[in-house]
Specification:
19% strand, 40% helix, Rossmann fold, single chain
Length: 173
Amino acid sequence: MKTLIVYYSWRGKTELVATSISNVLDADLRKIEEVKKRKGLFGFISGGYGALKRKCSRIKPLNFSLSSYNLVFIGTPVWALRPTPAINTFISKANFKDKKVVLFVTMGGFGGNKTVKMLTDKIKLKGGIVIASFVVKTGGVKTEDIIKKGEEIGREFLIKKSNCSGLSFYPVE
């Protein structure tokens, strides 16, 4: 099964999780980047406002096609209890018809479950099948513990897949 992990990360924590999962699953890894890089306090405020209003942002061209993959992981931070504008753009442009999707969100505080629900609804509208989702709390968590959590999720996914059993939702810790 060919697997892709695609993610957006502003401060690098979602990237830590995505990279850790990719290493365990030996999956292709692609980062979504905004055309205009967010910086400082204004970047934080404008990003939160854009997420709150469910806006999209301009992203750099993607050098991959989902058609090459059987399974797609999508990762985003939680901003204002919602997915980021960059992930909104990616999902709006992607063809998820009959694709199996695993969602993951990272968050400093709360809003993970709500964000997962919003992403799930968007993926379903685009014809995708969300088979699993999980939330990783990163606020106040050491870098090495974030990496360990990503690796744990990757291993758990391998075990569930090899046992042909269902995949579970990973609750906020």
